[in-house]
């Protein structure tokens, strides 16, 4: 079934209107969270002070029989330009079932200006839209197209610092957003330990606890914090380094052989994942399906990780 049109679609949903009064301000906009820009006081407190305000975007793929598929991604106006001006004209007429061919073309089309980063967001939207259209043609969810279901249930965890609310919802695993990083010195290290210790006491010994560091640390801080938090039995420490510093990932792995390490949210295409798997620098890789290149890329990463 041939693709006849590809276009970016901008959606502007109405503002969310609270239906109840919150018990406190949301952690995601009110609590201090360590981030790559924490060394700069003017934007230190939270990532929302410096990340671009680009909207979400959808890619719409239309097939020759009128079937449509949709895929979502971020960085709206930039992704939209890449989709409309560059990717779409080069994919019209392709067979929507030929996912590997389409994925290869998408990668090669974006390579001249960098297939990773912003281009990967646009690629993800196109790939996901193709899978959505395929599923509609066959009358099946995408997980069945991929050979599933593999499991009848998944163990889920809650991300964020409103742990009491997550407990009310029934979660048994919690991933905290680390408040402080190297810029906060020994006082920040102490506060991080107090935060994790308090949470461990709150959830008890029969729940899992993880720590998301969102690219905020360097080698020394990662090692020191991991050693400080060892008594609290973290299931993993996540995204502790800038994603492109591969040498630092190797160094942390060498110095923390006992700590489960997770990373990859801000890696794009299959290549950094293949490198991490081959060199065993992480125990868990975490591609984001809306950023990394879509479902086709995630399948390849999963195959490498399980090999």
Write up what this structure looks like.
With 307 residues, this protein is α/β, with parallel strands linked by helices. The protein has two domains: 3-145, Enolase-like, domain 1, CATH 3.30.390; 158-306, Alpha-Beta Barrel (TIM Barrel), CATH 3.20.20.120. The protein is 40% helix and 13% strand. The chain is built from eleven helices and nine strands. The strands form two sheets. It has a six-stranded parallel beta sheet with strand order 4-5-6-7-8-9, covered by helices on one side. It has a three-stranded antiparallel beta sheet with strand order 1-2-3. The radius of gyration is 21 Å and the shape is globular. The mean pLDDT is 95.
**Total beta-strand segments:** 9
Order of helices and strands: EHEEHHHHEHEHEHEHEHEH
C-alpha geometry: globular
Alpha carbon gyration radius = 21 Å
Task: Tell me the distance between the termini.
Answer: 32 Å
Mean pLDDT, nearest integer?
Answer: 95
List the helices and strands and how they pair.
Layout: E1 3-9, H1 27-30, E2 57-63, E3 68-73, H2 76-91, H3 99-110, H4 118-138, H5 142-145, E4 158-159, H6 163-168, E5 173-177, H7 185-203, E6 208-212, H8 219-229, E7 237-238, H9 246-255, E8 261-263, H10 271-279, E9 284-285, H11 295-306
Parallel strand pairs: 4-5, 5-6, 6-7, 7-8, 8-9
Antiparallel strand pairs: 1-2, 2-3
Helix pairs in contact: 2-3, 2-4, 3-4, 8-9
């Amino acid at each position: 079934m041939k693709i006849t049109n590809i276009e970016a679609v901008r959606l502007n949903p109405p503002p969310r209107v609270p239906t109840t009064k919150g018990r406190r301000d949301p952690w995601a906009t009110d609590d201090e969270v360590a981030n790559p820009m924490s060394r700069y006081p003017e934007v230190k407190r939270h990532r929302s002070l410096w990340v671009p305000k680009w909207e979400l975007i959808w890619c719409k793929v239309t097939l020759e029989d009128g079937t449509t598929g949709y895929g979502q991604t971020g960085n709206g106006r930039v992704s939209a330009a890449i989709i409309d001006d560059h990717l779409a004209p080069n994919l019209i007429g392709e067979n929507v079932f030929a996912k590997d061919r389409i994925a290869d073309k998408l990668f090669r089309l974006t390579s001249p200006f960098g297939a990773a980063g912003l281009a990967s967001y646009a690629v993800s939207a196109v790939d996901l839209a193709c899978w959505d259209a395929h599923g509609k043609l066959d009358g099946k969810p995408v997980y069945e197209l991929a050979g599933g279901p593999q499991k009848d249930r998944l163990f889920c965890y809650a991300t964020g610092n409103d742990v009491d609310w997550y407990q009310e919802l029934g979660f048994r695993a919690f991933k905290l957003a680390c408040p402080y990083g190297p810029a906060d010195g020994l006082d920040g290290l102490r506060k991080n330990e107090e935060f994790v210790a308090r949470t461990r006491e709150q959830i008890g010994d029969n729940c899992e606890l993880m720590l998301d560091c969102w690219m905020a640390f360097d080698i020394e801080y990662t090692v020191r914090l991991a050693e400080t938090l060892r008594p609290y039995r973290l299931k993993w420490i996540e995204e502790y380094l800038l994603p492109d510093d591969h040498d630092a990932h190797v160094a942390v792995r060498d110095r923390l052989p006992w700590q489960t390490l997770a990373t990859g949210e801000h890696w794009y295409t299959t290549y950094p994942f293949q490198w991490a798997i081959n060199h065993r620098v992480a125990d868990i890789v975490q591609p984001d399906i809306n950023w990394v290149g879509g479902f086709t890329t995630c399948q390849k990463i999963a195959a490498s990780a399980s090999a």
